[in-house]
Write a structure and sequence with these properties.
Blueprint: E1 15-18, H1 25-32, E2 37-40, H2 44-50, H3 56-62, E3 69-73, H4 81-90, E4 96-101, H5 105-109, E5 120-123, H6 129-132, H7 138-144, H8 148-151, H9 156-173, H10 181-191, E6 197-198, H11 201-208, H12 212-224, E7 228-231, E8 247-250, H13 253-259, H14 268-290, E9 296-301, E10 307-313, E11 318-323, H15 335-343, E12 348-353, E13 359-361, E14 364-368, H16 369-374
Parallel strand pairs: 1-4, 1-5, 2-3, 3-4, 11-12, 12-14
Antiparallel strand pairs: 6-8, 7-8, 9-10, 10-11, 13-14
Helix pairs in contact: 7-13, 10-11, 11-12, 13-14
Amino acid sequence: MKAIRRLLSAPGDHFFLFGPRGTGKSTWLRQTFRDAVFLDFLKPATLRTFQPHPERFREFVDAHPRARTFVVDEVQRVPAILDVVHSLIEEHRKVRFVLTGSSARKLKKAGVDLLAGRALRLSMHPFLAAELGDAFSLDRALRNGLLPVVAGAKSATATLAAYLELYIREEVVQEGLVRSLDPFARFLEAATFSHGAQLVSTDIARVCQVGRTTVDGYLKILEDLMIGVRLPVFSKRAKRELVAHEKFYFFDCGVFRALRPKGPLDRPSEIDGAALEGLVFQHLRAWNDFSGAPDSLGYWRTRAGVEVDFVLYGERDFVAVETKNAAVLRPGDFAGLKSFREDYPEARPVLLYRGEERFLRDGVLVLPVEDFLRALVPGRPPLAAF
């Protein structure tokens, strides 16, 4: 697969780059900082050198007097090295430090303050449709997701399975995050039924036959590993009684599909609908982060069950987005957006569907979901092309 230009812009100062494994952090950094000196803690020999003696990083920097950028990959494996980096920054050296991580758990456990705010924080995500251009296929994205490590593989199914096994083995088992893998594996399957739905840990606990506190701990692991994401309720100037539970998504719809059980009792349409909603979510989230996080992202749901999938709210954007996995729309498909518009006439309501025509109905802009995803470019308003 040819190199894809990512739409993430590098700042001119020190920064962290967080994101799950396989999202292309290292590839992007090597393309962006061709003259940088790299230190990769995924390499066992490098880890053995610096883990017991993080102060050796100062010697490493001193040994490269002409270097202007140092990249440290998977910094969470040696969190104490951040104290050394902080010290070097305080010395006002004319170098830039870029630090990547695929897990925030060790950094939090070690009490690391992420350089006391001296470094920006960026996030890497799966591919955007706008990055892939003509190579983007909606059907393929819904089947396999948009992880770069999967997109370039000969067998997406096998690569996704290996990817998840690697994550579970190296990040969960070897790091001792769970006592037993079997309950965690059951939890992963159960969590897929909450993908795109309200997150109720007691329901998951009942299915997994474990305690609620155990499920809460498992959910925290997914968040720390950046595999699972919570979506809060949009409640600004609320006029109706809203639900309190957040929604939950896996960060990539291909990961969701790989984990989701499939059998005679699992309707394909239900899985396809959740995958489509997840694909839109990961695009909105990546667009927002790559744009410098100008907007808050949430969802809206009343106690009566009226819902809008996504709400983007910021100084320049106020957009309500509903996603339907159907090529033909029914009057009821507009109910959530109409109710939201009654409460928030300032918002621009958008309904995404699997059809091919664009049109305006009762004040709601209806767009083919593929057109919307392709036009979602960081730095531009989400509806700039429409």
